[in-house]
Design a protein that fits this description.
Radius of gyration: 21 Å
Helix content: 25-40%
Number of helices: 11
Strand content: 5-15%
Bound molecules: pyridoxal-5'-phosphate
Largest sheet: 4 strands, mixed
Low-confidence stretches: none
Strand order of the largest sheet: 1-9-8-5
Order of helices and strands: HHEHEHEHEHEEEEEHHEEEHHEH
Shape: globular
Distance between the termini: 31 Å
Number of strands: 13
Length: about 375
């Protein structure tokens, strides 16, 4: 969430400079007119920061998921497994390729349940997409083991957890592909934008070609003279977005540090309340700490907490306010209900959960006060 809170004159200055250095060009080509290739630089800086083998920037996180699925050869009739607490983009990307989304339930991490994953793999399963929802990594050790055992590749949707770590490594770099989003609501933002991080350089060719009309972008060969082998699309990132992204990336460490202070200021009081259960965080994880989620035991308690949040001018993040966009229960306009048997269970769990956003424009003291107020009201 906080990226947009830290957009300021540094991003503005970088954008102004772009106009002095050749203007707003494509991410590729026009070598004589330009001094810089900002999208390509942003990709390089992400490789360094996240320790990724290769990174490709695209126009959105949704497009990134789709390109990664193309990279894995997912096509009509295939099945791709993802989870019931999610953002609809993941399911849309699967659906858009004519593949069938298989939506399984969540555990107390609110992410993909490994047990259900191993029970849901079938002969048509071509990929698994666990989603690190609201800053907390999924149980990746278990999920990766299941993928390996069944020889099914995994795409990590890390859109909501850019900067979070699992066992010392950044999420998005643990599996075949990792997906980032830089839309307005994410940990760092370029307004709109996304990236595919890849573990295996060999797999990148298909993804790269797909995001750019099938072009191979061969050095020294004029664009258009290359042989296009497969249909692509235009999912390229704009230079404008990359200029902003490079500045934002430099702020990510600070964003995470500041998140963490506020998160623990709030958590220290909530920890002492027996009647709520904090979201489970898998072992050896360092979340991005931009949201704190807990479950309440009844509707009355939920209302009390929501009133406190409202009085202190804190909203909620997605739960419960944007549950329709995040719970598969509501996606019956394009999903078959049978596909979605976990949806009601997930709905119940999410309906009794409250997500408190960690905002950098609110002070650590404000989060301390918020925690104490909740404890005084519902604690025992
Ligand atoms: C934001 C998001 C996406 C895709 O985001 P875009 O808005 O298309 O960049 C995908 N998955 C999850 C979980 C998200 O939160």
């Amino acid at each position: 969430m906080p990226g947009y809170e830290y957009i300021n004159k540094q991003e503005k200055k970088a954008l102004m400079k772009l106009f002095d250095e050749g203007g707003v060009l494509f991410a590729h080509g026009f070598d004589a007119m330009r001094k810089k290739y900002h999208v390509r630089e942003f990709e390089q800086q992400m490789n360094n920061f996240f320790n990724s083998n290769s990174t490709l920037c695209v126009s959105s996180g949704t497009a990134a998921i789709k390109c990664a699925l193309v990279g894995l050869g997912v096509k009509r009739g295939d099945e791709v497994i993802t989870q019931s607490f999610n953002f609809i983009a993941t399911v849309e990307a699967i659906y858009d390729l004519g593949a069938k989304p298989i939506i399984i339930g969540i555990d107390n991490t609110l992410n993909m349940c490994p047990k259900q994953l191993s029970e849901s793999i079938g002969p048509k399963t071509k990929a698994i997409i666990p989603v690190h929802m609201l800053g907390v990594p999924a149980k990746m050790k278990e999920i990766i083991a299941i993928g390996k055992k069944n020889k099914i590749p995994i795409i990590e949707d890390a859109c909501e957890a850019v900067g979070a770590k699992y066992d010392g490594r950044f999420v998005g770099t643990l599996c075949q592909y990792g997906i980032f989003s830089f839309d307005f609501g994410k940990n760092i933002t370029t307004g709109e934008g996304g990236a595919i991080l890849s573990k295996n350089k060999r797999l990148d060719k298909k993804v790269r070609e797909h995001h750019d009309h099938g072009h191979k972008n061969i050095k020294g060969l004029a664009r258009g003279l290359d042989r296009v082998d497969s249909p692509g699309f235009n999912y390229r990132m704009s230079e404008l977005n990359a200029v902003v992204g490079k500045v934002q990336l430099k702020k990510l460490n600070r964003i995470m540090r500041e998140n963490k202070k506020r998160y623990f200021a709030l958590e220290s009081s909530l920890n002492e309340i027996n009647s709520i259960s904090l979201r489970e965080i898998p072992q050896k994880c360092e979340p991005s700490f931009d949201t704190l989620i807990f479950e309440v035991k009844d509707n009355k308690t939920k209302q009390k907490v929501l009133n406190i949040l409202n009085n202190q001018k804190f909203g909620t993040k997605n739960l419960p306010d944007a549950i329709r966009w995040h719970c598969s229960y509501y996606w019956d306009y394009f999903l078959d209900k049978r596909n979605n048997k976990q949806a009601e269970k997930t709905l119940l769990k999410l309906n009794s959960s409250i997500a408190i956003p960690i905002l950098l424009n609110r002070t650590i003291t404000e989060y301390k006060i918020l925690g104490r107020s909740i404890k005084n009201e519902i604690g025992c």
